[in-house]
Amino acid sequence: MHTALLGLLGLALLGALHAQDTIPVQTDFQQDKLTGKWFSIGLASNSNWFKEKKHLMKMCTTVISETADGNLEVTSTYPKGDQCEKRNSLYTRMEQPGRFSYTSPRWGSKHDIHVVETNYEEYALVATQISKSTGPSTMVLLYSRTKELSPERLKRFTQFSREQGLTDEEILILPHTGERCQGSRL
């Protein structure tokens, strides 16, 4: 009985690891080209916080810069009530180029981040597997260098999000916020 249980747990762990490895990463990823200002155009997630806050979410600005040790500093500025709030995250690069890890100091959740595809000048599609004490979740982000993106890129974001098991109710094209929280000072 004990051996069978260990075998089942081993298979479950292998399945979870395989699921994380099925997310592709940009071929020939060039980290320095990912840096700069991006707008969050789309967000998809099956997490509880997303379901609770989805109706409040708007487009935000994200600035990505390289640190001296080759990691990524990611600063997102988004509207919250009457103010603009900033959130800084340090994405630690992993062995595979285009793949990063992040641990939320606030929630303790672990994030396995994949830059799925990008042409660096127009858009970036990023997928994250999140491990949290309340269970795993998936998040997909669509970044754009401008506030508008072609219907083809929006369709690709939706298609990829569905491929990750997300439903149409869990996929959101973020509404514009005007110039507030997206100024050129960023």
UniProtKB/TrEMBL annotation:
Family matches, as InterPro entries: Calycin, Lipocalin, Lipocalin_CS, Lipocln_cytosolic_FA-bd_dom
Swiss-Prot/TrEMBL keywords: Cytoplasm, Disulfide bond, Endoplasmic reticulum, Fatty acid biosynthesis, Fatty acid metabolism, Glycoprotein, Golgi apparatus, Isomerase, Lipid biosynthesis, Lipid metabolism, Mast cell degranulation, Membrane, Nucleus, Prostaglandin biosynthesis, Prostaglandin metabolism, Secreted, Signal, Transport
Domain named Lipocalin/cytosolic fatty-acid binding: residues: 35-177
EC class of the enzyme, as a word: isomerase
Keyword Repeat annotated: no
UniProt keyword Glycoprotein, yes or no: yes
Signal peptide per UniProt: 1-19
One cellular-component annotation, GO: rough endoplasmic reticulum
GO biological process terms, semicolon-separated: mast cell degranulation; prostaglandin biosynthetic process
Localization, UniProt: Cytoplasm, Perinuclear region; Golgi apparatus; Nucleus membrane; Rough endoplasmic reticulum
Annotated catalysed reactions: prostaglandin H2 = prostaglandin D2
Family of the protein in this entry: Belongs to the calycin superfamily. Lipocalin family.
Protein name: Prostaglandin-H2 D-isomerase
Species: Eolophus roseicapilla
UniProt lineage: Eukaryota, Metazoa, Chordata, Craniata, Vertebrata
Gene behind this protein: Lipo
